[in-house]
């Protein structure tokens, strides 16, 4: 089928064919900038950001030293200082990282280095067992980071979430105590600011108190929620943020910067270099003719690094803080609009009434199913609806919305608003389209089977 046109041949291909390949490539791509694309948290296409991406590719600069990337290093400093001010820290060390999952890896790595600096040299010896605490609805990258760093996935303690998606503090208290009693060394709590599915914010002031009490690292995964720091109306969600030790913030999500653009920031100046520095003499000569503290490369776990700052800097310059505030506030307002529409409309049922980040999660009941209240629809049945609707959605190609199970909850749809070009009409369309796609889904054959147990209520 397609494979023969994707093959690389021994002979060169002429320019006309290459241009046609470009057109074909775009034709078969998912249109992530389209206002009916809701599948991920990164949506939309910002023209200035795209220009920044092209310019960065034209400059083709590696970010490891000031020597080779003087302008971009200074831009990074400006951007990170700006972010630091929004966070409310005195000091900052930060770098752009290939995605939020890796930013979270840095968070766990620094927490480990902070608690057990000897591990960098001697490796994990087994006489001290580091443990990481995170909520069961937090991003999977925390668990993977523990696997990568030799901490082990068994040493990630998943704290229960309340119905609203926030970490259950009582459960955390108990698990912290139990883990200490078992002789483990708690090294960090990961707090999520805007969970990937429900958009919930963990309670920062209480988590910061606990971290102080136990003397452990507080990492904030604000990969999704971070952009809200730019708004006066929604910044309250981050109350207590300045007490965090490190933060993941993805401008490629709520701020609409082209992929990829993820910042990792810590208030512990110098720690990243202590943790990751190898002092490679071929790159980081200490006797250069300039202030070598501008060489940021030795803070990284990479060698060379992509230029992710130019597109963000250009967008920020173009919009100003106020432009970003307006863009991001609109995401929240549109999400509230959509939440209200879901609530009103027959066949649609909100998972959460009170939303924090601009995420709206809901279940859908096809028309013939509505003789029964949703609470009475069996878990296993409801679980089937979203995949059936999604299959039709992908075949008709007019909409892309993500579904997923969440803990014990059956498959639910998540609409997250991050595309700046959205209007209320695009959100109305989601409901029309899902209702259209789902209208003929028949009743399941065992609809009336009383032996099917429901574990949801
Ligand atoms: C998206 C997301 C991540 C991962 O970010 P990537 O850039 O996709 O690696 C981590 N945490 C949260 C809460 C996220 O929403």
Automatic annotation (TrEMBL):
In its UniProt record, a GO molecular function of this protein is:
pyridoxal phosphate binding
Kindly state which keywords UniProt assigns to this record, in alphabetical order: Decarboxylase, Lyase, Pyridoxal phosphate
Provide the cofactor list for this protein: pyridoxal 5'-phosphate
Q: Where in this protein does the record say N6-(pyridoxal phosphate)lysine is found?
A: 253
Q: Which GO terms describe its cellular component?
A: cytoplasm
Q: Cross-referenced SUPFAM superfamilies, in alphabetical order?
A: PLP-dependent transferases
Q: State one Pfam family annotation.
A: Pyridoxal_deC
Q: Is the Lyase keyword given for this protein?
A: yes
InterPro entries, sorted: PyrdxlP-dep_de-COase (IPR002129), PyrdxlP-dep_Trfase (IPR015424), PyrdxlP-dep_Trfase_major (IPR015421), Pyridoxal-P_BS (IPR021115)
Tell me if Lyase is a UniProt keyword of this record. Answer: yes
Coiled-coil intervals in this record?
Answer: none
User: Per its UniProt record, what CDD domains does this chain match?
Assistant: DOPA_deC_like
A biological process from GO? gamma-aminobutyric acid biosynthetic process
Q: Which family does it belong to?
A: Belongs to the group II decarboxylase family.
| Protein name, UniProt field | Glutamate decarboxylase
Gene source species: Candidula unifasciata
């Amino acid at each position: 089928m397609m494979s023969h046109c994707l093959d690389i041949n021994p002979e060169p291909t002429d320019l006309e064919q290459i241009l046609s390949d470009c057109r074909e490539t775009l034709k078969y791509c998912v249109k992530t900038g389209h206002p009916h694309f809701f599948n991920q948290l990164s949506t939309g296409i910002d023209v200035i950001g795209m220009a920044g991406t092209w310019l960065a590719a034209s400059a083709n600069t590696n970010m490891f030293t000031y020597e080779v990337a003087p302008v971009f290093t200074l831009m990074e400093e400006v951007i990170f200082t700006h972010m630091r001010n929004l966070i409310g820290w005195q000091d900052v060390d930060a770098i752009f990282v290939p995605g939020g999952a890796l930013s979270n890896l840095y968070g766990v790595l620094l927490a480990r280095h902070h608690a057990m600096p000897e591990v960098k040299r001697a490796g994990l010896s087994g006489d001290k067992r580091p443990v990481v605490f995170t909520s069961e609805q937090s991003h999977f990258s925390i668990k993977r980071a523990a696997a990568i760093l030799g901490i082990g996935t068994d040493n990630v303690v998943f704290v229960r979430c309340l119905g609203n998606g926030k970490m259950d503090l009582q459960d955390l208290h108990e698990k912290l105590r139990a883990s200490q009693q078992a002789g483990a060394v708690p090294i960090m709590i990961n707090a999520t600011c805007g969970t990937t599915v429900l958009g919930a914010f963990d309670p920062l002031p209480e988590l910061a108190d606990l971290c102080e009490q136990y003397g452990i690292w507080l990492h904030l995964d604000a990969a999704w929620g971070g952009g809200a720091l730019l708004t006066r109306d929604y910044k309250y969600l981050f109350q207590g943020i300045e007490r965090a030790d490190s933060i993941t913030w993805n401008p490629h999500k709520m701020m609409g910067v082209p992929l990829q653009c993820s910042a990792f920031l810590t208030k512990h100046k110098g720690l990243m270099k202590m943790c990751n520095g190898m002092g490679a003499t071929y790159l980081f000569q200490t006797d250069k003719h300039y202030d070598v503290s501008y060489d940021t490369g030795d803070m990284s776990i990479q060698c060379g690094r992509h230029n992710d700052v130019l597109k963000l800097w250009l967008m920020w310059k173009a919009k100003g803080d106020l432009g970003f505030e307006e863009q991001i506030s609109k995401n929240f307002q549109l999400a509230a609009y959509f939440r209200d529409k879901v609530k009103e409309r027959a066949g649609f049922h909100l998972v959460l009434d009170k939303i924090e980040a601009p995420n709206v999660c809901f279940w859908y009941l096809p028309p013939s199913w509505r003789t029964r209240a949703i609470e009475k629809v069996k878990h296993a049945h409801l679980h089937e609806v979203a995949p059936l609707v999604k299959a039709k959605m992908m075949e008709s190609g007019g909409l892309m919305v993500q579904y997923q199970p969440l803990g014990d909850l059956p498959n639910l749809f998540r609409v997250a608003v991050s595309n700046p070009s959205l209007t209320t009409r695009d959100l109305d369309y989601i409901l029309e389209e899902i209702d259209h796609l789902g209208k003929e889904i028949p009743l399941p054959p065992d609809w009336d089977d009383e032996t099917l147990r429901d574990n949801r209520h």
